[in-house]
Design goal:
With 182 residues, the protein is of the alpha+beta class. The chain has one domain: Gcn5-related N-acetyltransferase (GNAT) (Aminopeptidase). Helix content is 27%, strand content 36%. It has an eight-stranded mixed sheet, with helices on both faces.
Length: 182
């Protein structure tokens, strides 16, 4: 596994002519970013909905991920505008595996294929540059958008955690998915 790539904290990955992934830095934490994290529609399928985010707490999180030895937190930028994040990590070097998660905060970019393109790019980076063999993720069963994104990117359902989380006062399942390099 090429862990030297993980140390390049000024890293940028071009997704296409309009979309760029780059390691997010504290100076890029903005009021709109914090507003996304406090917007129920943006976070309703995540555990972030249970937290109250501030500029300071968000900068602390970004700083923690920036200095982490096993996490890469990328901002998703479309024509220079920060619209969301995608995180690869924690990376478990001993198992050559990692978790991936993402969100699109700018709602005008929902349903436009941005998350799919970014996830495909992160998978390629994880496999080719880091040498990972397995990537996994999870989503609430009623998050149809994420289900489609993971399926389009080659993830398969590996398990269901029945009655795992509460969503709008109702117990629902969590779906665990994985991408395995063959």
């Amino acid at each position: 596994m090429n862990t030297e790539n993980l140390k390049k904290k000024n890293m940028e990955i071009k997704v296409d002519e309009n979309i760029l992934l780059k390691i997010i830095i504290m100076e890029e934490v903005s009021d709109p970013y914090v507003q996304w994290l406090n917007d129920y529609e943006v976070t309703k399928f995540t555990e972030q909905k249970y937290l109250k985010h501030t500029l300071e707490s968000t900068k602390d999180y970004v700083k923690k991920k920036y200095y982490s030895n096993n996490d890469l937190l990328f901002g998703i930028f479309v024509k220079g505008l920060h619209i969301g994040n995608i995180k690869l990590g924690p990376i478990k070097f001993e198992h050559m595996s990692a978790e991936v998660s993402y969100f699109i905060g700018e709602k005008k970019f929902w349903g436009k294929g941005v998350a799919t393109k970014c996830l495909q790019t992160i998978i390629q980076y994880a496999v080719i540059d880091l040498g990972l063999k397995k990537i996994h993720a999870g989503y609430y069963e009623n998050n149809i958008g994420s289900a489609r994104v993971f399926q389009k990117c080659g993830f398969v359902v590996e398990g269901i955690k029945y009655s795992d989380v509460i969503f709008e006062q109702k117990r629902i399942n969590s779906v665990m998915v994985g991408y395995l390099v063959k």
